Amino acid sequence: PRAPLVLGIETSCDETGIGIVRGTQLLANTVSSSMEEHVRFGGVIPEIAARAHLEAFRPTLRQALDTAGIELDEVDAIAVTAGPGLAGALMVGLSAAKGLALAAGKPLYGVNHLVAHVGVGLLDPAEHHRPGGIGTAENGTAGNGTAANGTGQSGMRELPQNSGALLVSGGHTEILRVGSLTSDVQLLGSTIDDAAGEAFDKTARLLGLGYPGGPAIDAAAASGDPQAFRFPRGLTLPKFEGSAQTPGKHRHNWSFSGLKTAVARAVEQFEAAGKPVPVADIAASFQEAVVDVITAKAVRAATEHGITTLLLGGGVAANKRLRELLAHRCADAGIELQIPPVSLCTDNGAMVAALGAQLVAAGTAPSSLSIPADSSQP
Ligand code: KG4
Ligand code: ZN
């Protein structure tokens, strides 16, 4: 069978994303962001985001179709984020998807935003970090691919055996065992308070680095000393973690609220003493603490659950230090790491299309045209 041609629609937060894939091949990934309209509020305002989706939808769709060189009636299916996310924002994309599906007579697939962040890892090309010191290869598995990532006869790529995913975004921080993207995703651990991206955003605000904070801290940290401050690594005490044999309740969980408080205290001390705040050093030390505890716990959870291939996803996956330390620790643990390009880590429509193509190829039944937006979908 021919690889399915799928249009993906993403509107769960501030990015209006339209992606088009044929199997695992990316044909278009057009993103329009309303971030600039939210900057002065220091966070995404749901009503503004929903209105911006409404305005951006048609031009973004047109541009994606032109880039892919196709028309809507050629696609095999339309996939759309049904949740989780901002209710009003989700509703714009979902309503649009329903209208297009109905008008063009195409099956509709409502997908989970978080699973889509993982599914994008099956698109070409991703960075593959193989254990054994081979290093980073921009191995797009063009041609025949490899044993672990070969594309099958249908032009679809199989998820490797014993796969897991580390999902780090503005709303979620999760380690998952992924038996199948279409039917078997198990949560191994997650944050019990702030998401990793949220911690970056709040810390950036404390340091006066603006919004969104992740890229700002990433940049500021480049000229700072990551050892200047020893910020806390949450939930790493033995009483939380236990042992591999008798795991504690929070063995595979994270907490970032204490870290945020510690940064606030450090800033206050400099201000109280009338000294300049060493922004770069604090940013670098904060980033080191977050990345250290995320990677340590993720790799341990993966190891203890027999995961041999880890897919990284979510906006925080754009972080340079995270990519570097995770690659290093996965290599040490004998885990193959797959990291999508940055443009596919932050919210986009291609990830929705990629998961949609997997659903079509798996023979999954389409969603009903009355599928609701589910803002708190797990
Ligand atoms: O996945 P995403 O685009 O949206 C959600 O689904 O949440 O993630 C957005 C988050 C924001 O918190 C942003 O600050 C963070 O990803 N982020 C980063 C970087 N780029 C984006 N965090 C750390 N370092 C980065 N380079
Ligand atoms: Zn996201």
Quick recap of the structure?
With 378 residues, this protein is an alpha/beta fold. It has 12 helices and 12 strands.
Highlighted features:
cytoplasm, Nucleotidyltransferase, domain 5, 12 strands, 378 residues, globular, KAE1/TsaD, alpha/beta, tRNA N6-adenosine threonylcarbamoyltransferase, 19% strand, binds 5'-O-[(R)-(carboxyoxy)(hydroxy)phosphoryl]adenosine
Q: What secondary-structure arrangement, pairings included, does this model have?
A:
Elements: E1 5-10, E2 15-22, E3 25-33, H1 35-38, H2 46-68, E4 77-83, H3 87-104, E5 108-112, H4 113-119, E6 127-130, E7 135-137, E8 163-168, E9 173-180, E10 184-190, H5 196-206, H6 213-221, H7 238-241, H8 257-272, H9 279-304, E11 309-313, H10 320-333, E12 336-339, H11 342-345, H12 349-361
Parallel strand pairs: 1-4, 4-5, 8-11, 11-12
Antiparallel strand pairs: 1-2, 2-3, 6-7, 6-12, 8-9, 9-10
Helix pairs in contact: 2-3, 4-12, 5-6, 5-8, 5-9, 6-9, 8-9, 9-10
The structure holds 5'-O-[(R)-(carboxyoxy)(hydroxy)phosphoryl]adenosine and zinc ion.
